[in-house]
Write a structure and sequence with these properties.
Distance between the termini: 78 Å
Number of helices: 23
Strand order of the largest sheet: 1-3-2-4-5-7-6
Radius of gyration: 31 Å
Number of strands: 7
Order of helices and strands: HHHHHHHHHHHEHEHEHHEHHEHEEHHHHH
Shape: elongated
Helix content: 55-70%
Length: 589
């Protein structure tokens, strides 16, 4: 039987022999080399773990492991940088002023091991919690979420992304140091001046960015890049031949100038035969007018061309005229336009124009003023021509905008009185939080009503809805002209705001919407960043949630501009048809 004391003695003897042969020194040297290569800042690691933990907390829309891994990796890299700065500040300003003894080397190594293991355990624990949170959010939106085991892949991807970001920064840092050494060697720049020069360059860069020079240059390049897609032709967008469409041989707006979204808009939509098949009544050919960024002649404006196209097609003699303010790329929601065309038997005219090549998110960041100016100019020009019609022969004048388009559409009006005096109805879908009129109505809502479904002035003129029944609240007394906003409690485009940085919004302090998890909490900076990340995934959900409004737009049209022969049965037949058309567009576009 082995004596335990004898075993320990032999191990110590064997270990001493190995150390004498150099194995111990080799292991120690190898460990130091690995540490030098990794150059791990343990304060940065702790803060990176905190940032990672914040990034996996629940937000408005669900995230799969891939999307969450990318977001969390970037967050962790940012946290690592913050931690490095904090440690530098501590060593520079605090440690010289206090007496702190230097612990033995083995204590420092033990603490480092504890920090690494502890951070890994915290990250793993947060991933398990996050997997459960995400499954809950997927369930609230009637979607199938990933399993807990599959979601844990987020950790590996986050580590890879974070390491890549940190490695990129270190590469740039070494390049800057190399250039500085060359300047000191060849230009004789004193090394002592390097920090001051760095601060000066950083200050110049920040001032340049705030002045918008670099920003405008970036978005000019982005605009040029996205214009390539604008020029692409789709096999599923065929030039129309009927004169009621822009881009046709009779049109003043040539087919090749309409842009990708404009060509799709005018080449699709229901014809009289399909409208009659759905409604059971005779129908007309709907008018669709579209003006691209390159459509107007050098000596004309887009608004003048749009009015000329409306006159050419006889739009001012139709029952309904709709002015659509598009999103950044010029996109028009096909479901919203087709729904109205079915409702009125094709006796409609819909006009839209493009104001940018950029997607809405970039347009929102680049120049929100552009959509405001474009929306106002287009409305004023059409409204002026519409007024020239005899009062009893004018078509119903409606305005529509979705997402950033709603902001441009709102901008045509000074206030509620101005809006009601000029239009016969307004439908705005998924409005950004920065919409001027929307913010006024929501902030002045009736006491006791929630921010996600406010009631303004007893709902007499303006109403908000996340589903069809909401538009019937609070009473049947809804006076014309009617204004309706469609907004979901889980739509990040509606609720993202810079105010989230320092203040808790009402929509998180009041009772939540049905598809917003009660696990979501407000934290300074964190919630702002989380909802900002949700913006890129706002449409990655099922209809009825996030920024996917689907056929709710049909209910919105029926609420503000119901035709005389409207019935619930007709509504459902149209709903089925427009949903089928939307599914087709998602498949082939």
């Amino acid at each position: 039987m082995l004596d335990p004391a004898d075993v320990l003695t032999r191990l110590r003897t064997r270990g001493s022999a190995l150390f004498r042969r150099g194995w111990g020194r080799r292991i120690a040297v190898a460990a130091r080399r690995v540490e030098d290569i990794i150059d791990l800042n343990h304060t940065g690691l702790v803060v990176a773990t905190v940032f990672f933990a914040w990034s996996v907390t629940p937000s408005l829309v669900p995230r799969d492991w891939l999307f969450q891994g990318l977001i969390s990796g970037v967050n962790a890299a940012l946290g690592y940088g913050v931690g490095c700065v904090l440690q530098w500040l501590f060593r520079k300003w605090i440690r010289p002023r206090i007496r702190i003894g230097t612990p033995p080397g083995w204590v420092r190594y033990l603490v480092k091991i504890f920090v690494v293991v502890g951070c890994a355990m915290v990250a793993a624990y947060m991933l398990v919690l996050s997997a459960d949170w995400q499954r809950e959010i997927f369930g609230l939106m009637n979607m199938e979420g990933t399993t807990r085991a599959a979601y844990l892949r987020t950790g590996g991807l986050s580590f890879a992304v974070g390491a890549l970001v940190v490695a990129t920064y270190r590469t740039v840092r070494e390049l800057v140091r190399f250039i500085a050494r060359q300047l000191s060697r060849w230009v004789r720049v004193p090394p002592a001046f390097a920090p001051a020069v760095g601060v000066l360059l950083l200050t110049i860069l920040v001032i340049t960015l705030f002045n918008g020079v670099a920003t405008r240059a970036f978005f000019a390049v982005a605009n040029s890049a996205f214009s390539v897609r604008n020029d692409q032709m789709s096999d599923y967008a065929v030039q129309p031949t009927k004169p009621e469409r822009s881009g046709s041989p009779d049109s003043l707006a040539k087919w090749e100038t309409l842009g990708f979204e404009g060509r799709w808009f005018v080449s699709h939509g229901p014809d009289p035969m399909l409208i009659s098949a759905v409604t059971g009544k005779p129908a007309r050919e709907p008018i669709r007018v579209y003006v691209g960024l390159q459509s107007a002649a050098p000596n004309a404006t887009e608004e003048e061309l749009a009015v000329a196209e409306l006159e050419r097609t006889g739009a001012f003699d139709r029952k309904v005229l709709v002015i659509v303010t598009t999103t950044g790329t010029g996109w028009v929601n096909s479901l919203s336009t087709a729904a109205l065309e079915y409702m009125y038997g094709g006796d409609t005219a819909i006009v839209a124009s493009q104001y940018s090549y950029l997607p809405s998110v970039l347009s929102f960041l680049a120049d929100r003023q552009k959509v405001a100016v474009a929306g106002k100019k287009m409305f004023d020009a059409i409204y002026q021509r519409w007024q020239q019609q005899p009062q009893n022969a004018r078509p119903k004048l409606l305005v529509y905008g979705e997402s950033l388009g709603s902001q441009g559409s709102e901008s045509a009006f000074d206030g509620l009185a101005d809006l009601r005096s000029k239009v016969d109805g307004a439908l705005w879908v998924g409005p950004p939080n920065s919409n001027r009129l929307w913010e006024q109505f929501v902030s002045r809502r009736d006491p006791g009503t929630r921010e996600i479904d406010p009631v303004y002035a007893d709902g007499l003129v303006v109403r908000f809805g996340g589903d069809a029944p909401d538009l019937d609240r609070p009473s049947p007394d809804w006076r014309r002209p009617r204004i309706a906003y469609l907004q979901h409690a889980s739509d990040p485009i509606v609720w993202w705001s810079s105010d989230l940085i320092f203040s808790q919004p009402d929509w998180l302090s009041e009772p939540r919407g049905p598809d917003v998890t009660p696990q979501m909490r407000w934290w300074p900076f964190v919630t702002f960043w989380q909802v900002a990340a949700d913006l890129t995934n706002a449409q990655g959900v099922s209809d009825g949630h996030g920024h996917r409004y689907g056929s709710l737009v049909l209910d919105g049209w029926a609420a503000i501009a119901e035709p005389p022969d409207w019935t619930p049965e007709l509504r459902e037949r149209i709903r089925l048809q427009v949903e089928l058309a939307e599914d087709y567009e998602r498949t082939v576009k």
